[in-house]
UniProtKB/TrEMBL annotation:
This is Methionyl-tRNA formyltransferase. The keyword Zinc-finger does not apply. The lineage of its organism: Bacteria, Bacillati, Bacillota, Bacilli, Bacillales. Keywords: Protein biosynthesis, Transferase. Residues 204-303 form the Formyl transferase C-terminal domain. GO terms for cellular component: cytosol. Residues 1-178 form the Formyl transferase N-terminal domain. Gene3D superfamilies: 3.40.50.12230. It catalyses: L-methionyl-tRNA(fMet) + (6R)-10-formyltetrahydrofolate = N-formyl-L-methionyl-tRNA(fMet) + (6S)-5,6,7,8-tetrahydrofolate + H(+). Pfam families: Formyl_trans_C, Formyl_trans_N. Its EC number is 2.1.2.9. GO terms for molecular function: methionyl-tRNA formyltransferase activity.
């Protein structure tokens, strides 16, 4: 049986590794094109491409999977099954119709909840306590295909999107390994999704990253966790971008008198206490404009921050 595997970020690597280690015949990997990365804009291959090359697999990187040329290139591989995991593009019907066993996707949520490109980040941002992985047949819509199998994964208060990515990628690979034998044997009874229960997790925007200090401390805490360690949440200090990478779990501290949301109410090497719309939030790891990520204790000696300063969530 010939399998084509499609994926892009680190999330997809454990699933590809499982297929290789279990002896499946992966004939090629497909990933997004190399992209400029970092301040020096160095052209960098996606993690899935690097893993595939290490396994000795040929790698295709079409700019647009909907192009006739890209579909023809996949058809030439004569796949019996296509497996995707966080590939990053919606596959056209012409491609979905190629493999005799269909196309399946390892998706990082419990469908029909959190369809879309950022289910892991948004599940944390929204304060969910449980998420999971769903393996489904792919359809023309956005994560709308029939569900084949699923597994739940708890979200702890300490989880960031980084730790949850690792948990779900491992859970997805394990679930794929348990699902494939029955799928290949034709023993799968897929379950249609209830579209009335569908929720969506669109890709994150700059607006999603900006802190609104009028929100409750717990909400901002979840936002910071959901954006770490990728984009990071940000606010403004003296008109410059000020990123927040980690906070202490809100302990229910009451509002500090008449302090407005965004006001610094206490400063120490332990952290920066900031008034929110409901409670006080302590910042632990920050990144002032033009500087590296650091703890508050490392930053304070060279800063002039004091109680009464105000973080502004609006435009600089």
């Amino acid at each position: 049986m010939r399998i084509v595997f499609m994926g892009t970020p680190e999330f997809a690597v454990p699933s590809l590794r499982l297929l290789i280690e279990q002896g499946y015949n992966v004939v090629a990997a497909v990933s997004q094109p190399d992209r400029p990365k970092g301040r020096k804009r160095v052209l960098t291959p996606p993690p899935l491409k690097e893993a595939a090359l290490a396994f000795g697999l040929p790698v295709l990187q079409p700019e647009r999977m909907r192009s006739p040329e890209a579909v023809a290139a996949i058809a030439e591989l004569q796949p019996d099954l296509i497996v995707t995991a966080a590939y990053g593009q919606i596959l056209p019907k012409a491609l979905l119709d190629i493999p005799r066993l269909g196309c399946i996707n390892v998706h990082g949520s419990l469908l029909p909840g959190y369809r879309g490109g950022a289910p892991i980040q948004r599940s944390i941002i929204n304060g969910e306590t449980v998420t999971g992985v769903t393996i489904m047949y792919m359809a023309e819509g956005l994560d709308t295909g029939d569900m084949i199998s699923r597994v739940e994964v708890p979200i702890t208060d300490e989880d960031t999107s980084g730790t949850l990515f690792e948990k779900l990628s491992a859970a997805g690979a394990e679930l794929l390994g348990r699902t494939l034998p029955a799928l290949i044997a034709g023993e799968i009874k897929a379950e249609p999704q209830n579209n009335e229960l569908a929720t969506y997790a669109p890709n994150l925007t700059r607006e999603d990253e900006r802190i609104d200090w009028s929100k409750p401390a717990r909400s901002i805490y979840n936002q910071v966790r959901g954006l770490s360690p990728m984009a990071g949440a940000f606010t403004y200090l003296n008109g410059e971008v000020f990123k927040v990478w980690a906070c202490a779990k809100p302990d229910g501290k009451a509002n500090n008198g008449s302090a407005a949301p965004g006001t610094v109410v206490a400063v120490s090497t332990a952290g920066i206490d900031v008034q929110t719309g409901e409670g006080v939030l302590q910042l632990l790891e920050i990144q002032p404009a033009g500087k590296r990520v650091m703890t508050v204790a490392d930053w304070l000696p060279g800063s002039r921050l004091s109680s009464g300063a105000v973080f502004d969530g609006g435009e600089a």
